[in-house]
Amino acid sequence: MSVSEGPEPYRGALWRQPVNPLVVVDDPEAVELTGPVFGSADVTDLDGDLTRQRPGAPLGERITLTGRVLDRAGCPVRGQLIEIWQANAAGRYAHRRDQHHAPLDPHFTGAGRCLTDDQGRYRFTTIRPGAYPWGDHSNAWRPAHIHFSLFGAAFTQRLVTQMYFPGDPLLPLDPILQSVGDDAARQRLVAAYDPELSTPDWALGYRWDIVLGGPSATRTEGGRR
Question: Is 78 considered catalytic here?
């Protein structure tokens, strides 16, 4: 398939739509009790540095990723819990269901979290993920991306999205990204390389802001890979 032919349609929507009636829950507190539980440990700096979570250093291109979480009026969202998860540098997730024929990295968990500061800023140190094949269509590869999850005041208030990297040749071929019909909205899902964030001899820097609502809102998703 050439770039001029455009990407294949995103077929995952057909696989992931509900086949059974939705479950009606009358007690909101019961929903929260069955949701994710992070335990009693506070969020620390180690949670936001995916290169220091294991005894050894993970393989791959080290990056610093930062930005701001803003509301529809452009005001910072303070104390926002952000989680990320991603594939390793070889394009494989540290998850039992990922059977991609790429090596696992014993020194990379692929998951982190942090809280935004008073200016709505977040910061992660991690490894640039690799592309990986997926079964959407013939010879389909997902571009490098990092999943973001943002929680509100409760676990039932959750937004999930994906961040991509600039200059990736797989971007125009990716059905998930191209399912966002508005070009400006697609571009808002791509981080910007920022040399001011790069640390000499250590890491490249990327900046990506997340806007919650309004005409410049960051596109969010439900149940995508």
Answer: no
